[in-house]
Design brief:
The structure is a homodimer.
Chain A (H helix, E strand, L loop, with lengths): L1 H30 L6 H19 L2 H16 L5 H18 L2 H24 L2 H22 L5 H9 L5 H24 L15 H15 L8 E3 L5 E5 L2 E6 L7 H18 L16 H15 L3 H14 L9 H7 L17 H16 L8 H13 L25 H20 L13 H10 L9 H9 L6 H15 L4
Parallel strand pairs in A: 1-3
Antiparallel strand pairs in A: 2-3
Helix pairs in contact in A: 1-2, 1-3, 3-4, 5-6, 6-7, 8-19, 9-10, 9-12, 10-11, 11-16, 12-13, 14-15, 14-16, 16-19
């Protein structure tokens, strides 16, 4: 069996070698590629995808998985082999269940939908995008049928990003969260004027911003000998291997938090990637347990660490150094409030940590209604706007700042949005775990001492890679599932103090 | 037949889509990759190479080539189809002739040889590299046997880089060239003090150097919407497609010519790539007719254009702008002499255009002697040193500045060096062609007007891609083969004027 396992590992590692190449091509596309390169790049990426898919779905792999699965589980749930076979079997089953024709049709439809969306958003013209959204919904339904599900087709899609999660479990979680957040949002709105972000608005040299965020991520624990940070239009993290995990950030000349928290966010993703055990490289065990678990890492570093008062104490001298004269009179407290201003807004990616999850709830509810045919595509903008009014008391002027703002649906991704909120919730559970295991950790950032925090995350989360489903990982390490309370408690405590109201 | 041709084209374009991906990975490796990325990158590159080779050597391709070859030639030598089939047949025959075991052994041996060479050069220890050189020679002999040849195994290797060239044809050419150059070198040596390069030595801000060379290559005609220029340890050009041709350069703080002429050189390669007809993309017709023809482009722009007095007239104001104060008192004539100083030196890549080709002759003679067993590897350093003494009157102190200076042999490349000299010779033939077709072109660079020169190269060379063997291309366009006289005349005229001796 051991020999067969080695054979399987070798075969599968070749698939990951191709996927790693694809990741390099995508990174280059977003970071370096001149406009002329687009055509050839699309051809190369599609050739690699086809080769990878063919190699991965080779029936020989299926036979080896079937032969080895029970043997591997017999070595114990925690063994490398058992985790390897669990993760591979899951991925392999999904890959073989999807008919190549559907994959091809999906890929072509998405390519057209992204082009249409780009133009439709520019023109704020939902009608131009509507037929593409219908097509994407139809293809996602067919995908769900091909993958199979028990209760809702949404479950099959959700499972692609958050394995094991279901609509039935998520609904009450998101409902409870929204119920807890809405009063907080109201109280903040009543005192909107009491917090200003003027300190971080102005004119900040962008190359000084890059120097600053390079310093910050290095201090957080990002290893530049196994990665690099560049600029791109939309910040992202990509793993070519455990030892080459790259991040990008975005600088905005007149708004300093963009780069700082964008970098801290991507750094959180990258620390997860760089913390993956070396022996997981080029195996199905590399990568995060789920999108939600990945997002828990990025949100933890971005919000719970970098948007804390102790962090601002450490950050302020760095800002004074990089932007001479600009922060001389500022206090850590002023910086802290400036980077934590909360206000209802139209755009999800610009939302603060209080309002953010309602943007997700809105999308979750709309996706389900659309997928189940309870909402017609042509009626979607109206529902979007009325939900915005209901959640935040504001409504988009047009589709560009409403239903057309996100690229996800054009990319064919239905069921992805909830992972952002799952990440937020878990990030607070991690902080609660640290409170138990390493009391006093919240003050460490003031000294620029992040290593104890990182080493705890390494031991409790990173070391497992994709060995367990996210639910199982939480249960094993923390004895619980995804919970709303830690996050709600965190938000209430932080923002009641900041805005001066009773929690 | 047309349908079959379309089928063949589709199959082959997928191979080029993979090769383009490999090129991106190699570029990233040399330009961006953090040290940690090396392991995964090697695995990805080797996976892609294997896939590309398998797809290319698929017997189906061989059958289609056999079926289509005569039909295509019937459409006329100049037709796309005829050129396509000629180039593809040549490449395909080479690929199928090489047994996969030999390719694998070669690749492993080279990987070890490069590591050994890196260390051996650091330690200036030829003995440590000798066994690897023996292995490389042995594998090259086996490669030559597999590929087949009429007279010398060297021909089979040479043909990989300079299709159609033979040792028997090259020997008299190189001999005649050396005979013409040696007296010039002696005359220059006798007046060594009359030309100084002090003007271009000093302290030049490296980011200003990058701005400068970006300006220069853009002015020469390099299209930044279909390429980019970065820094790397060794400058190179790489084509991902006709519309994404990237160059790199090297800045040296205390020596300005490094970046300027490095960029002009790579720009010459890139103009060839960017000038390839769009319909050649992802076909065997993309790329240069040969290494020598490619080098003729880079040398033409680097030496004949950029090291001319008119070019220096145009360059000087740019230098004054980028390095304020530094060139105020300099004249174009002083700049011209500073960038054309000639002196015997140990290192090929640092050699000037007069002495350069003797470095190549030395390597050509040694490669043949080694390959034919007339020279034992252990005796090679001694022969190297005595040839240096003979050619230049100087001898290396150690192997690092002698026989270990170049990476080519460690890379497994025997028969590559002559292409540099072929390129130099053709570059002078191109200049002579321009003299006929566009009299007065030599003064154009003074006005920064390079477009007429480029458009002539486009029409006479670039437009053909790999449609003809280099010999056939020269014959068709210029009615001649590779000639020594134009280059010798150019060198004699230029350097006798510069150093003040009778030509």
């Amino acid at each position: 069996m051991k020999e067969k396992f080695q054979e399987l590992k070798k075969r599968v590692s070749e698939v990951y070698a191709i996927n790693s190449a694809s990741a390099v091509l995508s990174w280059d596309q977003q970071v370096n590629m001149p406009p002329g390169g687009a055509g050839a790049r699309a051809a190369s990426l599609s050739a690699l995808e086809e080769l990878s898919h063919a190699k991965f779905t080779d029936p020989g792999n299926g036979r080896l998985i079937a032969e080895l699965y029970d043997w591997a589980q017999g070595l114990g749930e925690d063994s490398f082999e058992a985790g390897y076979l669990r993760a591979l079997k899951r991925d392999h089953e999904k890959a073989v269940k999807l008919p190549p024709e559907l994959v091809g049709e999906f890929s072509r439809a998405v390519s057209e939908a992204v082009n249409a969306w780009t133009k439709a958003r520019e023109d704020s013209d939902f009608k131009a995008f509507a037929p593409h959204l219908r097509k994407v919904l139809d293809l996602n339904l067919r995908k769900a049928e091909a993958l199979g599900y028990k209760n809702s087709p949404y479950d099959a899609l959700l499972d692609l990003y958050e394995p094991g999660a279901t609509r039935a479990e998520l609904e009450p979680v998101l409902g409870k969260l929204a119920g807890g957040l809405k009063p907080v949002i109201k109280k903040i709105a009543a005192r909107a004027g009491s917090v200003s972000n003027a300190l971080v608005l102005g004119d900040f040299d962008e190359s000084a911003q890059m120097d600053l965020v390079n310093d910050i991520v290095q201090k957080l624990g990002y290893d530049f000998s196994r990665g690099r940070q560049d600029r791109s239009a939309h910040p992202f993290t990509t793993d070519f291997s455990v030892d080459d995990v790259r991040i990008t950030t975005r600088t905005q000349k007149d708004y300093l938090p963009m780069a700082i928290f964008g970098s801290a966010h991507e750094c959180g993703h990258a620390l997860y990637g760089q913390g993956t055990p070396k022996e997981f490289d080029f195996t199905p065990l590399a990568g995060g347990a789920s999108q939600g678990m990945h997002e828990s890492q990025s949100r933890f570093w971005e919000n719970i660490v970098a948007r804390s008062l102790p962090f601002c104490r450490w950050l302020l001298p760095l800002l004074r150094e990089r932007f001479p004269g600009r922060f001389d009179k500022a206090s850590p407290e002023l910086l802290y409030s400036a980077v934590n201003r909360s206000a209802p807004s139209m755009i999800r990616v610009e939302a603060d940590e209080v309002t953010y999850n309602l943007h997700i709830l809105l999308r979750f509810e709309m996706e389900i209604a659309l997928l189940e045919g309870k909402l017609k595509v042509q009626d979607a903008p109206e529902l979007w706007n009325s939900k915005m009014k209901d959640f935040f008391g504001i409504a988009p002027k047009n589709s560009a700042e409403g239903i057309l703002q996100d690229i996800h649906w054009a990319y064919g991704m239905i069921g992805y949005f909830p992972t952002y909120t799952i990440g937020n919730l878990i990030s607070a559970q991690l902080a609660a775990g640290l409170d138990k295991d390493r009391p006093g950790w919240r003050e460490l950032p003031a000294k620029g001492d992040f290593a104890p925090i990182l080493s705890w995350l390494r031991a409790r989360v990173h070391v497992h890679g994709r060995k367990y489903l996210p639910g199982r990982l939480l249960e094993k390490e923390f004895g619980e599932g995804v919970k709303v309370e830690p996050f709600l408690d965190y938000i209430k405590a932080k923002y009641s103090a900041l805005y001066g109201f009773k929690p």
